[in-house]
Amino acid sequence: MSTLARVDWQRMASFAVANPRQALINTAVAYFIFRQVTKGIKTMSVYGLQKVLTHLWRAVAGGLIRTVRKAPGTGAVLQRSIDKVVKDIEKSMNVDLPGETKYETIPNQPMTDAEILAILKRRQDEPGVDWRNGRASGSVYHGGEELARLTNEAYAMFNLTNPLHPGVFPGLRRIEAEVVRMVLNLYNGTAECCGTTTSGGTESIIMAVRAHVVWGRKTRGIEKPNIVIPITAHAAFNKAAEYFDIGITVVPVDPKTQRVNVKAMKRAIDSDTVLIVGSSATFPHGVCDDLAALSDLALQKKVGFHVDSCLGSFIMPFLKEAGFPEVVCDFRLPGVTSISCDTHKYGFAPKGTSVVMYANKHLRHNQYFTISTWPGGIYASPTIAGSRCGAVIASCWAAMAKMGHEGYLQECKNIVGCRVKLQHAIEQIPELFIVGEPTSSVVAFSSRWPVDIYGVQDEMKNRGWELNPMQDPPALHIACTRLTVPVAHEFIRDINESVAAVKANPDGYSQGSKAIYGFAATVPDTTIVDEVAQGFIDTLYAV
What we know:
By secondary structure, the protein is an alpha/beta fold. It has helices spanning 9-18, 20-47, 49-70, 72-93, 113-124, 145-157, 170-186, 201-220, 236-244, 262-268, 291-301, 361-365, 390-427, 453-462, 488-504, 513-522, 526-540; strands spanning 194-198, 226-230, 247-251, 273-279, 304-309, 338-341, 354-358, 369-371, 379-381, 432-434, 442-447, 468-470, 475-479. The protein is built from 17 helices and 13 strands. A hairpin with a 7-residue loop joins strand 8 (369-371) and strand 9. The model has no long low-confidence stretch (mean pLDDT 92).
């Protein structure tokens, strides 16, 4: 006999009639318990017992710390420590330069062109990381001086244009449409596929999330949509979830390959899921998720599937032709509904251009904003911005036309070949090991005892290199660019010297990067780290 058959339904009904208030309370409590148990089972199936216990500990410990922070005595002491860290950041960044005027109000009298350009030149030459000689990881995706001159000229030609007014600038409309179509063809889009330009990868991702959220509400009646992403997916997905106040489930990756755990992602999908995400390639480790498996999963679960190729951009589509293992990361995968690609990375366009692509116009329509009742007229815009800079779009078109297929193919060979060279050199250092299985232009690496990886970062910084620190697990990465290629031998020399220096004095790196990232990894109350990060951003606007 089943469990339901053993229930005395008549007795329960009689109780409910005689005690309606108590019956309602009992039903509500039972429903709450059922929801919590169901949620707990789902969480356990996605993360596993160890991760769940870790999350629980951090939540409890973080709550205790937040309570302590509210206490008059201890809270004030902790706040002073946070304020000191923020103040130190401001001192290191906002440095007064001898003889340099601070402009806090508009000058009373117009400045001459010569005066203005002299100030701009001084500020352009303020000392920083020597990116021109390839010492910065990623950051500057330079296509060469000749290309820069061309894109600057294109920018000047379209300096006053605005895509919001296609009737005023019909040639710009044509240019923008061609940029989108060229990128679509690069990603094997069909005639039905479409897209828009955006201001960068973050906006492309936010727009893709919006399109799928609106799609879920319109076509499936989902009131509380959620998305499911790997922990290595770009933080822009978390930003989108916060902006739109939607649910987000972050699933783990395989600790060896750093690819998303597809089984965990499958368990995380529920009836309110509108979108799953895979990367081509991930920012932390340059790894491509199992996109074919995610495509199949999206079709099976009838959800959207976004491929984030902002970093892979014009590298991934050329891998096979360049002689490297192919990664299918485009519309040939039947489950793919949207793709983001940064033209301002390895497309070598000026900063401020990206393309978000969709499988069809119906999905793209969900990205748009339109209002037909505004007194200012019928208003419609494709992305977050209303007015947009036409100059960067024209410069993007110029870069793509100048580089051509052959130019991008050669740069893929050079840049990915540089990553392979650095990876092989790092693998020869006993104290270091590669994190994940890189497939693109990025290689991440960590260290073995007694060498601390953040100590290696500080030593590399002393030698002029600006590498990107990673966490969970602790690591460094370098995103190879066109500028890295000619100085690869210098990197190999300096990384060997840096490891040797840390190994010789393993206790000498308790401050610096280790202190910052060690604190961030161990403190249970993430609001403390958030407050420091907010202080950093405040510093960017300090005069």
